[in-house]
Amino acid sequence: MMMTRGTSRVARLTMGGRLFSAVKGAAAESEKFPAMGVRWRSSLTLGEKEEVNNKNGEDGGNKEVVASYWGIKGEEVKKEDGTPWKWNCFRPWETYQADLTIDLKKHHVPTTFLDKLAYWTVKSLRFPTDVFFQRRYGCRAMILETVAAVPGMVGGMLLHCKSLRRFEHSGGWIKTLLDEAENERMHLMTFMEVSQPRWYERALVFTVQGVFFNAYFLAYLASPKLAHRVVGYLEEEAIHSYTEFLKELDKGTIENVPAPAIAIDYWRLPADSTLRDVVMVVRADEAHHRDVN
Length: 293
What we know:
Layout: H1 2-32, H2 46-58, H3 113-133, H4 137-148, H5 150-166, H6 173-191, H7 199-222, H8 224-251, H9 261-266, H10 275-292
Helix pairs in contact: 3-8, 4-6, 4-8, 5-6, 5-7, 7-8, 8-10
Protein name: Ubiquinol oxidase
Subunit structure: Homodimer; disulfide-linked.
EC number: 1.10.3.11
């Protein structure tokens, strides 16, 4: 018994030491990149990681370059002009130019019972969202994108399992939905560079995502059509929110800062692009997801 307690205490001390080292390392990296706040190594770009590791090497620390989430250095990728590619969350062949000519006013008029159920469910969710975020559109976009990336992943996962059970093709829908989830996640990665969430907003993400994931999962099992209709109407509301975001930028209420580097590379934007340009392409993405769903 005494041996077990002693071993357990040593394990707790060891884990505590590792946690302290991790937090200390994150703090050191935040000092190196003060504009980014406290960011874990998995969220840094390849160039930032190399710079941090080079600094650690100069200080006598670990010189190993960790270039991916799994701690394995990936293959070296370069841009078309030959310069190193610094992003580990997406690759050059996954970039694209958004279609800004897409119809933003298209609306699917609810006709069936499921349509009306989806429509009014989304409308009822908008009121508390407006009350909570008010006109803080940057933070609203960042938090809501943590939820918007859920439906595509859930739908793709369930269709994947269905394809396996039935020994049949998916007609391309698995990839379409997973691409949608990845695109929404990249929206989040972009707005992370613009707005820093407060502690209670981070806590809200855990709660909302936990509830929404399970609710959407059950809804998709019951009626995929209802689930997709919900996403379609959510995207219509997203278009409205980003339109209001643009109005605030045009009025000068929100500063039109330079576009984050990750957005310039992901959407192939000009080097002198601004936050307004980013909101424009994100809104176009949401319109595309609306049409798909």
